[in-house]
Backbone:
């Protein structure tokens, strides 16, 4: 399917608009806003053959040194007498580093030439705050103190303008900065089964939210003409309480007069969100995007039968959903999944080992699915975290916030070990020095892979 | 000072009528919504008297107002309240007993946190001073502290009481007290801020997020201020000054040099022009619009400085200003999830649901009391909304509205009267006539109880209901 449902809706909706001059004004405004926002260039489609990027965020600061352990380095064992991955445990990559013992599926993928390990990734003057360093990684604008868009969002802005909001899908309740564009706002949802309207009479809900072309425009058109054309003022007064006075004062008299005064008095008025209907239009648009996305996502997920054996929990569920959506040929170019809990200030081997197992089980199952779907050649997956951790263990058998760390890349064009493992003796305030700037890795992901 | 014309009280000029829609607007923003009866009472007062009544709360915590007004603390009665007590209690235990005891403490804290949340939502909904609670919610987002990093729910309750006490009080005093607040000392690691190894976390956030805003101080100011706060710590729920960990040396902060302590830092901060503006901008964004108007913010900041950082007159002026009642402001702001939940309960004449019951929904919508997502606190406006949170908001609204006592709130009547009555109750301003017509035609011929319930649910799932 080349056209997104939203675009189809737009075309049909606009055709209907042209045919029906008395379309409800709230729909009219929403559609016009969307149309104006849509440039002429068409968005690249993914469907069954375009390339896809999957980003896995390891939130909290992943201990890269125990994920890709320099098992042969004495300094490693000296710094971490209680928590180092032992020389015998490590799944050896070469005679210096090895993977965490719980990463057996990933070791298999590495041996098959399907995985790259990019070592010592970071940026200059590393920040050790979760928020700030997270913002730096997600915005890829270290100099910007209050970034409003992310590296993937800006890719959408520049390469998929006016695109279907399904161009990017985040599994989770919050839309990460990385996915936010200045113009494109992609979708996010936590669990597909809760990503839907659950109230009574979905048809009415859709019409009230301007989602359904069938109701409001086609059938509702006739019914609402009277109200819109004939007695808008009266109806509005009724709606607000029926005594006429309610609306009159705020919307009519006081309002108009006050408004004019604002500008005359010299206060800067006329901001966009303040413009009449600004937030209402924004809500209509978001509701439409969400509902259209919800229908398609639920359809795709419901029909999916996974081949991989996913770990329990939100991370495994999220990857399973992504596998389902890729199988269904969604127009999505970038998926974003998070595994949290990496802030291991204490009990590192207990907690981090468990997380490594979840990561391995999840990515292993995901890749099994992609292979079964024959989609593994068009998917590249990368992990990242806001920072690595201090080389030296702390007093609680854990590690504190650090700096450079490795990224894992599945699929794509790279394989093997990339870059040099950072020195464990030449440190910056106890932290590893970076050898590869993360923006180089992003550049390859967007420039070379997604194109 | 010259007051900007837009900050003059609404209702003094011809054509400015403080009617029911205006009273509804005021009660949505400065309280948690008004029932039709409350709206009618406030509309009769006029803007200035209405705001005066909302602001007529004492500068006291709930417990100071009434000694028995606390969350249910019984669950932690026999548990240790300081780390010292906890250490002693654990001392003689076997590892298994120790683990069991620690789990008991954690469970009791989780329960108390929920109980504190319920208690707070109850005050927002049915308390005598809803604006005090609204401001406490604002300050909770401002002086962010998350219970995720908190071992003791008790400290969170105490902090919540501090936010209530200073809600419209002396901002300077407020900031000084926040610096001594045990939950804050824990959250921003000032407990670990020692002369030998200063921890900059609190000093940085104090300047960046609490008082000045980024760009109005230097890295040196942060480092030197951190030294001034060394030794500020807490033992259980009490502030303590550890003088052997305090750096009594000379510091240079914001252009002045001296042997400053934390209180001196606060005094120097409020003397910066940026401070009053920073606070007024945030208040304006919270109460009026997410895109504050620079001239009005600067005018309010002058007012705050001239009142020696006493917040009450500034909040009062803002809430009855002509700017606050501008037509594009009325109904133009996206409600926060807590406003949505408490407001729906209030408007439909119900008690708010227990926090435990709606925890999942609050999480999905992005605002769980005592658990702001990060030190930046709660967002305002559009940042509340993404595709996931919007559907979660609709579903939450629909679920709550489904609990309405139908016969009491939506009595049987002709379709247009029912629709208009409920729109007035829930939205309180004009909506697109086409939408109203949809509702009327859907109700035509069916005024059964389920149909009336459905009407409340549809309205709760309209984009218009997200605004207020």
Residues:
């Amino acid at each position: 399917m080349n056209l997104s449902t939203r675009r189809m809706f737009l075309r049909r909706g606009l055709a209907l608009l042209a045919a029906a001059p008395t379309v409800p004004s709230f729909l009219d405004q929403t559609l016009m806003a969307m149309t104006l926002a849509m440039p002429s260039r068409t968005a690249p489609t993914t469907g069954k053959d375009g390339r896809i990027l999957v980003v896995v965020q390891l939130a909290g600061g992943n201990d890269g040194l125990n994920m890709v352990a320099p098992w042969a380095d004495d300094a490693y064992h000296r710094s971490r007498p209680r928590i180092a991955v032992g020389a015998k445990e490590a799944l050896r990559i070469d005679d210096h580093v090895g993977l965490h013992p719980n990463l057996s599926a990933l070791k298999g993928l590495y041996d098959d030439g399907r995985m790259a390990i990019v070592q010592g990734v970071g940026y200059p003057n590393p920040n050790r705050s979760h928020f700030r360093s997270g913002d730096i990684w997600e915005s890829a604008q270290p100099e910007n103190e209050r970034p409003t868009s992310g590296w993937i969002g800006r890719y959408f802005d520049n390469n998929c303008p006016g695109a279907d909001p399904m161009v990017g899908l985040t599994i989770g309740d919050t839309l990460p900065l990385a996915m936010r564009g200045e113009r494109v706002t992609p979708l996010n949802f936590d669990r597909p089964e809760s990503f839907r309207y659950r109230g009574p009479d979905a048809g009415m809900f859709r019409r009230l939210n301007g989602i359904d072309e069938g109701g409001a425009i086609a059938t509702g058109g006739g019914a609402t003409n009277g109200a819109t054309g004939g007695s808008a003022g009266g109806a509005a007064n009724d709606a607000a309480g029926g005594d006429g006075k309610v609306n009159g004062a705020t919307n009519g008299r006081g309002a108009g007069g006050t408004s004019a005064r604002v500008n005359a008095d010299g206060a800067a008025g006329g901001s966009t969100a303040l413009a009449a209907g600004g937030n209402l239009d924004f809500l209509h648009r978001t509701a439409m995007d969400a509902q259209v996305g919800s229908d398609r996502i639920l359809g795709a997920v419901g029909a999916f039968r996974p081949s991989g054996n996913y770990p329990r929990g939100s991370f495994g569920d999220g990857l399973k959903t992504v596998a389902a959506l890729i199988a269904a040929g969604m127009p999505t170019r970038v998926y974003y999944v998070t595994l949290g809990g990496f802030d291991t200030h204490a009990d590192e081997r207990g907690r981090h080992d468990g997380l490594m197992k979840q990561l391995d089980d999840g990515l292993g199952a995901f890749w099994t699915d992609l292979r079964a779907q024959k989609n593994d050649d068009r998917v590249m997956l990368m992990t990242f975290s806001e920072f690595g951790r201090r080389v030296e263990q702390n007093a609680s058998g854990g590690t504190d916030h650090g700096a450079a760390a490795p990224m894992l890349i599945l699929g794509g064009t790279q394989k093997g070990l990339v870059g040099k493992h950072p020195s464990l003796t030449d440190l910056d305030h106890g932290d590893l020095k970076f050898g590869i700037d993360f923006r180089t890795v992003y550049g390859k992901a967007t420039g070379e892979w997604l194109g | 000072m010259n007051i900007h014309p837009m900050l003059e009280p609404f209702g003094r000029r011809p054509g400015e009528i403080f009617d029911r829609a205006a009273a509804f607007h005021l009660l949505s923003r400065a309280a948690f919504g008004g029932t039709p009866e409350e709206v009618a009472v406030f509309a009769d007062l006029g803007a200035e008297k209405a705001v005066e009544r909302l602001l007529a709360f004492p500068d006291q915590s709930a417990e100071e107002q009434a000694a028995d007004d606390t969350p249910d603390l019984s669950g932690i009665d026999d548990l240790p309240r300081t780390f010292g007590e906890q250490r002693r209690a654990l001392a003689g235990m076997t590892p298994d007993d120790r683990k069991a005891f620690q789990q008991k403490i954690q469970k009791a804290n989780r329960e108390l946190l929920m109980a504190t949340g319920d208690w707070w939502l109850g005050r927002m909904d049915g308390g005598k001073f809803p604006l005090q609670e609204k401001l406490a919610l604002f300050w909770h987002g401002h002086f962010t502290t998350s219970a995720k990093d908190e071992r003791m729910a008790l400290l969170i309750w105490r902090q919540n009481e501090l936010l209530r006490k200073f809600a419209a009080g002396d901002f300077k005093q407020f900031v000084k007290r926040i610096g001594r607040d045990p939950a804050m000392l824990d959250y921003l690691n000032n407990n670990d801020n020692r002369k030998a190894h200063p921890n900059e976390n609190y000093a940085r956030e104090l300047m960046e997020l609490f008082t000045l805003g980024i760009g109005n101080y230097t890295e040196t100011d942060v480092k030197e201020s951190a030294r001034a706060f060394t030794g500020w710590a807490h033992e259980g729920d009490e502030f303590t000054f550890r003088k052997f960990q305090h750096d009594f040396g000379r510091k240079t902060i914001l252009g002045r040099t001296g042997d400053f302590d934390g209180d001196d830092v606060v005094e120097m901060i409020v003397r910066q022009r940026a401070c009053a503006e920073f606070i007024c901008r945030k208040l304006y964004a919270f109460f009026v619009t997410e895109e504050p108007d620079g001239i009005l913010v600067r005018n309010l900041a002058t007012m705050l400085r001239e009142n020696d950082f006493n917040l009450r007159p500034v909040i009062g002026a803002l809430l009855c200003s002509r700017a606050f009642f501008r037509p594009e402001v009325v109904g133009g702001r996206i409600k926060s999830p807590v406003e949505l939940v408490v407001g729906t309960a209030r408007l439909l004449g119900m008690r708010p649901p227990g926090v435990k019951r709606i925890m999942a929904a609050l999480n999905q919508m992005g605002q769980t009391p005592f658990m702001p997502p990060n030190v930046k606190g709660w967002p305002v406006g559009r940042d509340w909304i993404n595709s996931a949170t919007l559907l979660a908001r609709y579903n939450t609204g629909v679920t709550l509205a489904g609990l309405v006592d139908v016969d009491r709130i939506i009595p049987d009547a002709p379709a247009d009267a029912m629709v208009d009555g409920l729109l007035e109750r829930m939205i309180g301003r004009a909506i697109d006539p086409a939408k109203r017509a949809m509702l009327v035609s859907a109700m035509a011929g069916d005024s059964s109880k389920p149909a009336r319930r459905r009407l409340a649910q549809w309205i709760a799932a309209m984009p218009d209901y997200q605004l207020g």
In short: Chain A is about 45% helix and 10% strand. The first helix of chain A runs from residue 5 to 19. Chain A touches chain B through 90 residues (CB under 8 Å).
